[in-house]
Amino acid sequence: MEQLIKNAQEKNYIDFSKQTKETLQQKVAEKLAEKKYFKKLDQAKGITEASGGKEAYQKFYKETLKKFGVDSPSKLSDEKKKKFFDAIDSGWEADNETD
């Protein structure tokens, strides 16, 4: 990000444009991967939009991300990622789950 700002200040617009595009593509890819993950997890846990559980689940998911100090699980190490998903699994029970 610092290099992006430096290029803008130095009016190096070719590098600025390239870096902006790469950064934007990376952010979009992260959000799409997160959205895909939500959809697959919702399906696996039986959460439907009609149940009203999706919003509650997303809130729970984002709060858990915050506890781990990140805004995306892709930013976690493999070990922390496993702990994160274990926390999600143990902390959330879908309507159709039984003990």
Task: Describe this protein's structure.
- The protein contains 4 helices and no strands.
- Helix 1 (2-9) runs antiparallel to helix 2 (13-45).
- The protein starts with a helix and ends in an 8-residue tail after the last helix.
- The protein has one domain (2-91).
- The radius of gyration is 18 Å and the shape is elongated.
- It has helices spanning 2-9, 13-45, 53-67, 78-91.
Summarize the structure.
The chain has helices at residues 2-9, 13-45, 53-67, 78-91.
Question: What topology does this entry show?
Answer:
Layout: H1 2-9, H2 13-45, H3 53-67, H4 78-91
Helix pairs in contact: 1-2
Shape: elongated
Class by alpha and beta content: mainly alpha
The number of E-state strands comes to 0
What summary fits the major beta sheet? none
Average pLDDT score: 77
Strand percent estimate: under 5%
Give the helices and strands as they follow along the chain: HHHH
Percent helix, as a range, is over 70%
Radius of gyration (Å): 18 Å
